[in-house]
Amino acid sequence: MPFVLSPYRVLASLLAGMVLSVLWVNKSIAAYPDRPITIVVPFSPGGPTDKTARDLAQTLQKILGAPAIVVDNTAGAGGTIGAVRVIKSPPDGYTLLLAHIGMSTSYALYPKLTYSMLDDFEYLGVISEVPMVLVGRPNLKASNVAELIHLIGASNGTTTVGHAGIGSASHLCSLLLQSHLKQTMTGISYKGVAPAMNDVVAGHVDLLCDQSITAGPQVEAGRLKAFAVTTTGRLAKPSLSNIPTLDESGMKGFNFSVWQAVYAPRGTPKAILETLNNALRAALKDPEFAKRQLADGVRIVTDTRLTPAGHKELMRTEMAKWTAIIKAAGVYAE
Length: 334
Prior knowledge:
By secondary structure, this protein is of the alpha/beta class. It folds into three domains: 1-30; 31-130 and 258-329, Bordetella uptake gene, domain 1 (D-Maltodextrin-Binding Protein, domain 2); 131-240, D-Maltodextrin-Binding Protein, domain 2. The chain has eleven helices and ten strands. It has helices spanning 7-31, 48-64, 80-87, 106-109, 145-154, 169-181, 193-201, 212-220, 270-284, 287-295, 308-329; strands at residues 37-41, 69-73, 95-100, 121-136, 160-163, 186-189, 207-211, 225-229, 257-265, 299-300. Strands 1, 2, 3, 4, 5, 6, 7, 8, 9 and 10 form a ten-stranded mixed β-sheet that branches.
């Protein structure tokens, strides 16, 4: 006679399995983090986002009590390669993404994008924003914004502006500048901001819009001519506070900063997301972290953008804004 398992025993077995599964998940969440966390930075080492990530990793490790927090640079395709890596990672809180404003432009720049910015990530919060500085080669025949605008207009599109590649912060700043001026410039694309900066310093390229973290030291050393800051407020660093803003220099309403935010893969448990968001809030209040950011001209975010909901709302707004600018410029990446 064949053995037939009682339906009651089947049900009991299934319920026991479910209970064990729930207990295992709850235990894992309670123990979080009990192994190293990886923060993926989708850009090359040495850049502003990479530096912020390393400062944050050091502070978060202390707050979370994690064995280690490792920064892993997975660069390429305007940050989309690193983003895909995180999307495909287990949603367990051990692989995070720290990326900048370029996340909001991927949809418009990459027609073949394989993921949804709004649906494939858990939003943890915007942590900081970095002003940019419009700089030029030392021998450029303009000494202020008004003279620079005249030079750009008279050049019939031949003024060159370097950037760190399609979708980079420097590229977005150059697009916004041209949109605001209703003038065109010749964009020169590089694989990273360092080679672009080198060519401006050497006098091979006219202009570059770069984050204050990396542009500031070059201006202080006299290797670059600083024209203006891209935000409505001047830089807090005393040695750079004399640089005017574009807004006060005649380009009313011009306001651009590079916001940086943290994401987790979709499906990460709510309890882990709450732990991470609380840890981010604590990290931003850490005196040593704040001191390092201030020294670089980085502004720590304390408003609603630091919440998951505020972060996602910013993403929606920025996506709409940049899609219009990018489409008007006819720019896209393969």
